[in-house]
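Input record (one chain):
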Amino acid sequence: MAAPKKGRSAKAQSKPGRALALILIAIAALTGGMFASGQTTPRLGIDLAGGTSITLKAKSGQESAINKTNMDTAVEIMNRRVNGLGVTEAEVQTQGDRNIIVNIPRGTNSAEARQQVGTTAKLYFRPVLQTQVSGPATSPSTSPSASPSGKASGKPAPSGSAQPSGSASSSGSPKLSGSSSPSGGATSQGRPVTDALKATPSANPSGSASPSSSASAGAGAKSSPAASASPSASTGSSDSAAKLQSEYATLDCTSKAVRAKAGVGAKPDQPTVACGQNGGKQWQKYLLGPAEVAGTDVSKASAVYDTQGAGGWKVTMDFTSGGTKKFAAITGKLAQNQSPQNEFAIVLDGSVVSSPYVQQALTTGNAEITGNFDQTEAKNLANVLSYGALPLSFEEQSVTTVTAALGGEQLHAGLIAGAIGLALVVIYLVAYYRGLSMIAIASLLVSAVLTYVIMSLLGPTIGFALNLPAVCGAIVAIGITADSFIVFFERIRDEIREGRSLRPSVERAWPRARRTILVSDFVSFLAAAVLFIVTIGKVQGFAFTLGLTTILDVVVVFLFTKPLMTILARRPFFANGHPWSGLDPKSLGAKSPLRRTRRPSAPVDTKEA
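The corresponding structure, as predicted from the sequence alone:
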């Protein structure tokens, strides 16, 4: 059994080039990905690049409102707000269970950003007056939806055609219908139906006992529901209505700057314009009526899987007692309208997140949003609705502003510290290990390249930003990486001291050194992981960098240092123990192997015998 094992070992030792080729290919692939992404340098944190860091603390009258779901939703909303200002590479993240950290790079109006991120999000349900796919701005006079009086016309938006009351919405908005309608059966003549809002069956299916339906029936003979929801009817001013129609006609939701300003300053009891995405693809612009239901009127919202209907994910909503009355009244009116004026826009911070259409009055105090949801989309919408039900407000705890000059000085100081640490390690390796130091230096360079490329790639992928503690973690990692080389080299020297030649010494030393290296790196990685979990803020940058470089240390030692040592052990400079190789047997105090000799036997006395 020993011979085959030896043969396999010899075969493995004869092809160390495979491991070297593997790591070189990995470096080339990662470098190519870095250049392809356009991010050729690591992202810098606020303390190095300069900018403003804002710490916000959540507060609420309901302690249960401060939970992970609502905090994550708040982070998403603040991200949307900051991005709406045109800020690039801003960071919004939770810190602990009730704090949010907003890092805004330099070059941004920090005062405006502070006002945006600190404002409580507002959620409203508004009736849709007009809607269409948004594009470049057009002249108000050429808008097909504008009427001379400035009122919202009963004609459908260009994205869909008119349908009888209660039919499927032609605008592709979500569906708000009675249980008699097939779930998900809505169709679109202008854009695809992305989701549908299906109501729980009304207490009176006919709707005759509904207060909303009876009220609408009495008014139906005199005026259309569309007219009652027109901007002019809401504002009482034809000039305001004309101005709003003009704003809607020229609204281009494909522009981020325009989307950020759409509907700014509009009060809940006033009509407004807004933007939203149709299924996350096309931008849609909306002309909306006054808010009929507020987000605080929603008592509960959750994403569940529909096992009884057509299948798929849906979002369920429960309303408060006051919200139930409001919702019943407005849905009773909307159910009589033609598309798109039978739609109900769910507006968060002036942005339409969903716009279901109505087919009947909803009087039971609950409803369902159904359609082509996946699990993530359903949960995101449920989180938005829940956030409106349990509003959070934030108070500013601290604001730290770092100038670009100060950030540059800190980065410069960190780079100098790293260069000094690396130089000291190199001097020690050259003085003590001589020729072997070339292997260690090459391994350090490979580790540095991998660290730099991976940090650059992690910026656009997971938002990693290199801050000052992360630089400290990289400097500490130099010593951890050098320690692995020293363990391996000392094991080789121990074997040479025992009288063995270099090639067998390398292979015998590797298993013992490998165990020591793995145990040492495991302890370092465990410490980094614990530090990352229990700490918050910038200290996590130190832990993350330390853990990353520890993993790379194992990769470099296994795939580069050991194969390179195996190859160089065949070269005469190292194999013959040149004095400058660092493996000279004489300087290491190697002794020839001891040989046992037989002691001469005592002479036999023949006389005694």
